[in-house]
Design a protein that fits this description.
Blueprint lengths: L3 E5 L5 E5 L12 H13 L2 H10 L19 H5 L16 H12 L3 H10 L6 H16 L5 H20 L3 H15 L4 H20 L4 H25 L4 H18 L14 H9 L4 H9 L4 E5 L14 E5 H7 L4 H7 L6 H16 L7 H13 L6 H12 L1
Helix pairs in contact: 1-10, 4-5, 4-13, 5-6, 6-7, 6-12, 7-12, 8-9, 8-11, 9-10, 10-11
Bound molecules: zinc ion.
């Protein structure tokens, strides 16, 4: 099973990420996202995290996925090639350049141009992303002057009522908790009070108005209180004289956070929202670039270790191949044997991948990669028992030697 953790950024947004093992450079995210991850990790209890993680199994991270970069490694040559097959699912993957071109194509596009852009890789996408593209295309037909982010806002408007209906039943209970939070905040002093009051105001507004983002206001609030707690802790360290005030502030902030955790969470609604709805809520309000990136991320080409690094797999070309981000994350720390056992349908794809790669090596005369197919074959044999056929490469090398 995938270990997934969700984290919340800014207004009304959740993202799920594969649990990051900090020592695993294969899953390096940008500092920004790493930081967000830490924030959430601190702010949510284990059952909370589990609840949320069950909610969002199929949503990939918002952060840039950076597969490990072997500086100067020959495998990077392959990663730059457009339309290489994923070694696990066989999907035609996008190179970084293709990703960049796609983003610049759709970033400021509207109407027909946007529809054309969205259609470009739609058929290659996993079903959730494909459905979202279809929805965006239909909406773009009706709103020819909308860019991506406006289209999501339109979809939220259409679906808004559905989200609000879910919210309705426990509203009185929410109000009681909100009142308790307000009472506790009255005891705060200094900057902590000013900031907390502001956060409470936003939280209350969202809950009372039951606007389309109400479900997410709690997450944002908890994140903010967590931030104030960390600031108080820092102050406490820096200024020992004021320790008592800080300590009181800290106690109140902790109580406020615990109370907020009793507010209904996104997890409560997990049975009501589909992944598509989830995507719409998460990405409405994000930049066009982020939305475009997220749409095609599952099929971006990434370097995957056949034998996971966690299991002492080596950082060598021989132990690596190219997998789409989705498969890379799904395989995670599994051995190839385990992964194939879990998904028997992928069994022939390492062969398809190496056929594809041999073609590329021969056509482009990638001398650095002449030994790669044989090495890869050996790794796959060791890790899964499957013997790949690389006769085309062997023949090519023989004729090379002769000439
Ligand atoms: Zn794949």
């Amino acid at each position: 099973m995938l270990n997934k953790v969700i984290y919340f950024i800014g207004k009304h947004m959740i993202n799920s990420i594969n649990q990051i093992n900090k020592s695993n450079s294969e899953f390096l995210y940008s500092n920004y996202n790493q930081r967000q991850f830490n924030v959430l990790n601190q702010d949510l209890s284990a059952p909370e995290q589990l609840k949320i993680s069950n909610f969002k199994k199929e949503i990939l991270p918002a952060g840039y996925f950076q597969s490990v970069a072997f500086v100067g490694s020959s495998i990077n040559l392959l990663k730059k090639q457009p339309d290489v097959h994923c070694m696990y699912c066989n999907v035609l993957m996008l190179s970084e350049n293709q990703q960049r071109d796609f983003i610049s194509e759709v970033k400021h596009a509207k109407g027909k141009a946007l529809i054309n852009g969205l259609n470009k890789y739609k058929e290659r996408l996993p079903k959730t992303e494909k459905k979202i593209c279809d929805l965006l295309i239909t909406t773009a037909e009706n709103h020819p002057n909308c860019e991506l982010n406006n289209l999501l806002e339109e979809l939220i408007k259409e679906k808004g009522n559905k989200f609000l209906q879910i919210e309705a039943p426990n509203f009185d209970k929410h109000k009681k908790i909100l009142d308790e939070i307000v009472k506790k905040a009255e005891h705060l002093t200094g900057q902590a009070k000013i900031q907390t009051d502001e956060s409470i105001k936003n939280l209350k507004n969202s809950f009372i108005q039951r606007d389309e983002h109400a479900l997410f206001a709690r997450e944002k609030f908890i994140q903010e209180i967590g931030k104030y707690i960390r600031i108080e802790k820092k102050l406490q360290k820096a200024n020992r004289k004021k320790q008592n005030t800080n300590r009181e502030n800290l106690n109140y902030l902790e109580t406020i956070k615990n109370k907020a955790l009793k507010l209904p969470s996104i997890g409560t609604y997990s049975n009501f929202l589909s992944n598509v709805d989830d995507f719409i809520i998460n990405y409405a309000g994000k930049s066009n670039k982020r939305i475009a990136q997220r749409l095609i991320r599952p099929i971006i080409s990434s370097i995957d270790h056949v034998k996971p690094r966690k299991l002492k797999g080596e950082d060598t070309a021989a132990n690596t191949g190219l997998a789409c981000v989705k498969c890379n994350m799904e395989k995670n720390y599994k051995t190839l044997f385990e992964f194939i056992k879990e998904k028997p349908q992928i069994v022939h794809n390492p062969q398809n991948f190496i056929d594809n790669v041999i073609e590329l090596i021969i056509n482009n005369k990638f001398k650095q990669l002449y030994s790669y197919p044989a090495e890869f074959r050996e790794t796959v044999k060791k890790e899964s028992g499957i013997t790949l056929n690389i006769s085309r490469m062997e023949e090519f090398l023989k004729t090379k030697q002769k000439s």
